[in-house]
Amino acid sequence: MTFVHGPPDAPTWQRALRYAIRERLTLDHVMASAALPILFPAVRIGDAFYGDGSVRQTAPLAPAIHLGAGAILVVTQRSEPELAVSRAPPRCEYPSLAEVVGLLLHAIFLDALEADVERIDRINRTLGRVPHGTAPDGLRVVRLLVLRPSRDLGALAAGSWAKLPPEIRWVVRGMGGHRATAVDFLSYLLFDPAYTSTLIELGYADGRREWPRIERFLAAVAD
Prior knowledge:
The chain is an alpha/beta fold.
């Protein structure tokens, strides 16, 4: 489900297994959007409980497109170094539960976005080859700018599992979350100021580095 800021009686859009309703956004909606299944509790809104929409949102850019966006600036957690890795290195140990959960969380929150970006890019290139005025109904070019962190966010969490609260640390250790190979799972749990400050600093530095691209994108959209 997608909540859209606006009057409650405004029109909605609907697709297979997903739809949008207009609602006045509150703190509850923000907390529900941050509620990762199993790890953080769902939030009750009205007569139902809600969690992070990425769990079932197979096309995360679709809501913006259905609402009329002609350009989308995408900020993803998947870093440039991660994209450069073609295959996993050889290993001897069987993956721990924490590693498996980290992989599943990446599949939910990152893989769908990558697939959606690839899909839109393919549609844009296809429409670029179609004679003007002959595109199928409902299809239009949507400009995209994808921004990625310059460092692996999981790797930044390495060695920080001991900073978790004692009860959570005990559970995480039992899942194998203390292993160096379980940093992706750890990155979803770690809210320690040392880690979050590092993320903020990285985001600021990357934003400055990418500013020329951002400026060109915004200028092209404004034309």
